[in-house]
Write a structure and sequence with these properties.
The protein is mainly alpha-helical. It folds into 2 domains: 106 residues, Orthogonal Bundle (Recoverin, domain 1), CATH 1.10.238.10; 103 residues, Cullin, PONY binding domain (Recoverin, domain 1, Orthogonal Bundle), CATH 1.10.238.200. Helices cover 61% and strands 2% of the residues. Helix 3 runs antiparallel to helix 8, helix 6 crosses helix 8 and helix 11 crosses helix 13. The longest helix has 23 residues.
């Protein structure tokens, strides 16, 4: 109850109601609360709030640019180098990183039931928790990042951008999920492997399937689930073979020692 109240600023009675109806699962209860109608009629106040962050009101009346976005993230306690930043961008359907549209801003916060900065700050805190604890939320935000990070006119991500974002999403210190484990530095090996292939651009399929692959390695690091005739992108198939060779060399070195 303390966690629910802290994140939502709701009264104890409201917290108890939502927690009981969701089997005392705090993430689900908080999610349900913010998807409710607690923000009331949010239209006028959201428009006013949106206008307060516009960089150049005369040039783009329905957009917030990079300076306004940075100020806004600061006001709701979101760091630019954490996964939750992408979570808010996904909620508000940002067309590119560092830009909000009036429609996306208002529709997103209406859906979340938030019409004030304190409510948005609480929602951001709850979102931060859901990203790390609920795989479906992490996947939704991760996949939206592909759209945000593409350069104008490009269908794929440059390797440099993809590498930076993998290191963001696959690390708990950035509010993501750790891929490196005590036995296998998966993330480090994945980037090392791709660099050895010539840092080719990353297409949407490889981007999305890398996260699926990450989850599979979390379930079974021995790769017992992998088969040569699976539907994985070629780069991931090659990576599996590369990992097996890498592990074999490591085991051989240990025997020699």
């Amino acid at each position: 109850m303390a966690q629910f109240v802290n994140l939502t600023q709701a009264k104890d009675a409201v917290a108890a109601k939502y927690l009981k109806s969701h089997g005392w699962k705090v993430e689900e209860a908080i999610d349900a609360y913010f998807q409710g109608t607690h923000g009331g009629r949010t239209g006028p106040s959201l428009n006013k709030l949106f206008d307060s962050y516009r960089d150049a009101p005369g040039n783009n009346p329905d957009g917030i640019g990079i300076e306004g976005v940075m100020k806004y993230f600061g006001d709701i306690n979101i760091e630019l180098d954490e996964v939750a930043c992408f979570g808010i961008a996904e909620l508000l359907k940002s067309p590119t990183m560092g830009e909000f549209t009036r429609e996306g801003f208002i529709d997103g916060w209406k859906q979340a039931g938030c019409d004030t900065l304190p409510k948005m700050t609480n929602h951001a805190s709850a979102l931060r928790l859901r990203i790390t604890s609920r795989a479906e939320v992490f996947r939704r935000v991760y996949r939206y990042a592909f759209v945000l990070c593409r350069q104008a006119g490009q269908r794929n991500l440059s390797f440099e951008i993809a590498s930076d974002q993998w290191q963001l999403f696959f690390s708990s210190k950035n509010g993501g999920v750790d891929w490196n484990t005590a036995s296998t530095p998966w993330l480090d090996w994945w980037i090392e492997f791709l660099e050895g292939r010539g840092t080719k651009p990353v297409n949407k399929d490889l981007w999305e399937q890398t996260e699926v692959f990450m989850r599979k390695t979390q379930e079974d690091e021995s790769l017992g689930w992998w088969t040569a005739d699976g539907a994985w992108p070629g780069a991931l198939d090659d990576f599996v073979l590369w990992v097996k060779v890498k592990r074999g060399k490591a085991a051989e070195a240990m025997e020699i020692e």
